[in-house]
Write a structure and sequence with these properties.
Largest sheet: 3 strands, antiparallel
Strand order of the largest sheet: 4-1-5
Radius of gyration: 17 Å
Number of helices: 1
Number of domains: 1
Distance between the termini: 45 Å
Structural class: mainly beta
Number of strands: 5
Order of helices and strands: EEEEHE
Length: 70
Amino acid sequence: MKTKVRRLENISTSQIPVQIDAFTTIYVGKGEVLENKEVCNLEAIRGYVKVEQDLSEVNPINEGKMQLFD
């Protein structure tokens, strides 16, 4: 499953393989940042990276009071 990522930072002490699609893997070094990509293996590397996900497709939740007319 692809996940849209605004910013992905490697917080581990070694390189992390980030799979962009079925054929492309980018190796992100220690402290390096990858921005505005779709990532396929985010769950596998989540413990090694700091992630800011792109939630632009999620509909906002309207909170608060709503007036009902009967």
